[in-house]
User: Fold Outer membrane protein TolC from Phorcysia thermohydrogeniphila.
Amino acid sequence: MRFLAFLLAFLVPFTVKADTLSTIVKAALENNPEIKRALEEERISELQYREAIANFLPDISLQYTRTSLSDVPGYSMAFPGLPATRFEILESSFYEFKLSLRQPLFTGGRLSFGVKLRKELKTATFYRFKETVLKVLTEVKKDYYSLLEAKSAVEIAEKILESAKEHYKTVKAFYDEGVVPRRDLLEAAFKVKEAEENLERAKSAYRKTLEKLKKDTGYSLENIPLDGEKLDYVPVKLSEEELIDLALENRPIIKALQATKKGADYGVKLTYSQFLPAVFLSFSYDRTDQYPGIGTFDASAVSVLVNFPIFQGGKRFWKLKEAKSKKRQVELSLEETKHAVRLQVVAALSSLKAAKARVEAAEAMVEDAKELLKTSRERYREHVGTSTEVVDAIAYLARAEGFLNSALADYNRALAELEYATGVTLKGAP
Assistant:
């Protein structure tokens, strides 16, 4: 499986920079059940291809038989003046040894078309395997971005709770001095309770996201360190048509169907070959001691067999129609998949643009919140503002950071979907 991970590092169009994400991707490649199942299917197609090649080689069989008869057939012969004499045709116990070889000389293209068909199906299975890897790693990347989002949400919820508690202390002190009414105290206490509930919800969401990530990596990771890792923003400058062209050129599922279509073409030719004669070279060697009086008898024979099917109840015609229908079916599937891939690109790009707008708005909100916090602290130091203003500014900044964190997560998930739709890496693309 280490070799598999090394190989797929070149096969899968992903650029992984974060150490944690690299570890997660490697774990998914080695342990994800869906990837393992797809890999076994790829191995099966390889074996079927080799089996088709083996049909060119001769069939050699060796047969040994030991026979014991309860009654031996024979005949009697009488000469004048002499008693009748019985002659046995076979020995009562004898063996037969036979070696046979059969080599196809001409099959109307049956064998060669069979090999070409299996080769194309092997290629299609490989690209389906690659499509599975692409899909699984896309889901793993989205899990990773969601986990970063959930972790940041927990940290932000903790900041808001700390800010709410600090605000409550200030209001409590003012209430004890009779400066503010009881209503303000109850409102501050409610904010603390609300912040505590939000923190629990954030922790619950983090645990669920972590569990999904472990599931997609085959439950092979116990600890997933996220310290120092943050969501980034890498703009994609390619146009919609350029992305669609990339998808139609690079998406593995399209390549798989293109190979399947070629295989269907060979399948039609293979069916046509059933109407042609087949020629075989046959060699046999027999050895036996079943004949009385002559000891061991052996003989060899060489023959050429020509098989020309005349009538088989229309079976070949129905197979030909079936092969042509399968070819049309694959062609329709290919066109349908191209339209589906185009739709995936458009949908992912639309989500990416929407997330990009959210990121830009959130970045402006964070800058405004930082400026508000800076002003509130200056006002508090000059005894013009109150500590409540500072605490509220801190909470507002935390919420703005949370909005930015959510927008960045949506952007990266949309980017992962777009990379899946196109089948290529887009981070850092011009």
